[in-house]
Write a sequence for this structure.
């Protein structure tokens, strides 16, 4: 069985892309805190590459932003390729089967830990009023589960 569940924060806004066959996808990184603190008393984070396809990718790209918390259910896929210098490189990614909204849309993004990818952390912002009449998830509370099988 190959099943992964991740709860973490996006390190950047997911960018929606399309294959040559016009299939939507997005690849993004999720910072997931480790359960145990290190020797300094801080919790380290792992930065995990996640890939979503089709309608799932479109929804994630539309509703998630840098610093937002997300829960991912998926499977691990590994691969390899030869880089431009002929060196063998190995990849490990989590492919999304399902995901959950963990925070309400009007929650402020939380800065994620320092990343090996050198992104800039977001600065705290004042909370703005959100028009919940236009929020398609307002009646569902803080968590909505979307299964790709019901979206197509």
């Amino acid at each position: 069985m190959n099943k992964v569940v991740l709860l973490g924060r996006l390190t950047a806004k997911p960018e929606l892309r399309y294959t040559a066959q016009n299939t939507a996808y997005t690849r993004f990184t999720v910072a997931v805190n480790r359960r145990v603190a290190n020797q300094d008393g801080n919790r380290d984070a792992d930065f995990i590459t996640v890939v979503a396809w089709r309608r799932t990718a479109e929804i994630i790209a539309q509703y998630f932003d840098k610093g937002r918390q997300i829960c991912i259910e998926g499977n691990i896929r590994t691969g390899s390729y030869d880089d431009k210098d002929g060196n063998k490189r190995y990849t490990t990614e989590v492919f999304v089967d399902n995901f959950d909204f963990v925070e309400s849309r009007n929650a402020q993004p939380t800065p994620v830990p320092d990343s090996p990818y050198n992104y800039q952390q977001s600065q705290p912002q004042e909370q703005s009023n959100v028009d919940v009449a236009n929020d398609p998830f307002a009646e569902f509370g803080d968590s909505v589960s979307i299964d790709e099988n019901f979206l197509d």
